[in-house]
Amino acid sequence: MKDQLVELVERGKALSPEDRSRLVDLLLESLHEARLGEVEAAWDEEAERRLAAYDRGGIKAMDGEEVLARARALARP
């Protein structure tokens, strides 16, 4: 793998500054997308846990307006 990275870096250095910049953007974007997938998977798991707790009677549902009102009250100085 190391040899491949060295080759890729050398090939990247041969690109124009504009193309190098675009390559960096694309690589960073791919990292961001991978991280988003992890976050989405974590939220999926959390939603499943909450639904299971609700189904067991471990938690109660709250009206959306009540949740927003409480959040607004907490956000006030």
From TrEMBL:
InterPro entries: CHP02574_addiction_mod. Pfam families: Unstab_antitox. NCBIfam families: stabl_TIGR02574. This is Unannotated protein.
